[in-house]
Amino acid sequence: MNTDVAGRQAFSPKALCGTPRRLQRHLRAWLGAWPPARELELVAWSGRDRLGWDGGTCIGLGVESPGGTVLSLSPTLLVDPRAVDPDRVLAALHAPDAAEAVPAVLGRPDLTLSCATFRWSERPAVLPVVGEWVAADDPRLPTWLRPFNGGVLVAWDERGRYAAGVGVKRHNRHAHELAVATDPAHRGRGLARLLVAQAARRALVQGAVPLYLHHTDNPASARVAEAAGFPDQGWRVISLIPRPLPIS
Fold first, then answer.
1. How many domains does the chain have?
2. The model's pTM
């Protein structure tokens, strides 16, 4: 992977040539613009204020790739993209204190920045089918699986109790994001990768590209992604969120 002197990936628009069409359509619907017209494209987009899959909104959301970055901002932030130096934003994104540096460059020190690895797959691993699709309100499910709007895939133990599960975030008809967790008593059996691969295959059949996001400091989740057929292609998702109030 090529990097520039600042340590970030070298900008290469051609890097997006092989991006799946479904992913491109999703990113346009998710960010308001894609592909980026330049190394960093800042857009003020009213779509940021629409409710997402979970009924919430994200005032600032972006996707960074070797082919450029789009950072989509809610007009309610009162940030004029034309008045922001994109080079300063790019430098801030890759600074050690990016969580504070990016909001400062945008003139919004009341915000903070969160980053995660952004993965997708067109060829999920072909692994055994171990999960059952159930309704999100199934009483056997743990609480964390109940909010998902795109289906829930569960592996049960020998007694029919929850062992591991995948929740599907249906952002739009073009992309389904997968979240997975395993009950501590059943870890080490490979259930997470089996369920993620199974859910990814269904997403593709339904005409969507499966996505897998995880924090960059979560190696266990990264290993699940790799084993399920979601390679790290150097993409990140970046979110601007309100800075937590200090505890008095």
1. 2
2. 0.92
